[in-house]
Amino acid sequence: MFLSAAAGLVCFLAQPPAAHAWGNGGHRLVNKLAASSLPGDVPAFLRSPEAIAEIEYLGPEPDRWRSPAEPELVAAQAPEHFIDMELADALGPLPHRRFDFEASVYAAHQDPKKIGLQPWETDEVWERLKSAMREYRKLTAAKPDANTGAKPAANPDIRAVEQAILFYAGWLGHYVGDGSQPLHTTIQYNGWTGPNPNGYTTEHKIHWQFEGPFVEANMHEAEVRATMTPVKAIDGDMFDAYVAYLRNTKTFVEKVYQLEKAGGFAGAGTAESREFTAERLGAGASMLRDMIYTAWLESAKPVNDPYAPK
Ligand SMILES: [Zn+2]
Q: pTM, whole model, 2 decimals?
């Protein structure tokens, strides 16, 4: 018993940064607030209490993929929760496609697992969501019979595609939530490294202290909801918009260290640390809501069928 517990501890300590990001509670909160604030022009099934419960449940889903029982999955998906922006930017402008980025990392004799793949995973899941919404539009657009005017029987696949949409929306929420946590965007992910004139903590504790127990103990729906921005459609390219969101998150890295130094993440923290954390969770929830909404709007755009006969 003792041996296996000790081995488990070593395994935990050796894990890459950000073992859980926002913890269970924070991820559930981000997903629930996004799902429950979608505007009235998304389909009703997406705004139902069952849909909100499903999307909330899926908030921590990718963190459930870290069990040693699924070693290949753990290895493949762990880098998708973070990006060390300093290292990624040193390689030049971020390419939109995952393999182009990985090729540039390998060409620089570095390892994509260490730099992280956050924006690529997020954008790819968002595109899955948009694709499922396009299918939904197709299946629900069946027209009445031209002669009799009779409505066609509802296609049973509609229920199935609704389930797919909820899954993609919930799955997406995990990464968008991670992307509002400043320590998921930086080489300073868990203890200050390099020159440290301000004497920030160098212990490997700040990451989980901030996003785990502090959030669990102090963050509630009402104060996070109060920080959310009004709903909006995201203009332009989604990958670029998402990277801009990550860059904004990154501007708060030093703030996290300042708050920690002032005791902001111990116990109930300070008024400032609670306000800051609520704002970060609210930023994640707002971005997730806007990304789901934008996927819905963009799924209406006609697409050329690459397999259509010429
Ligand atoms: Zn994560």
A: 0.91
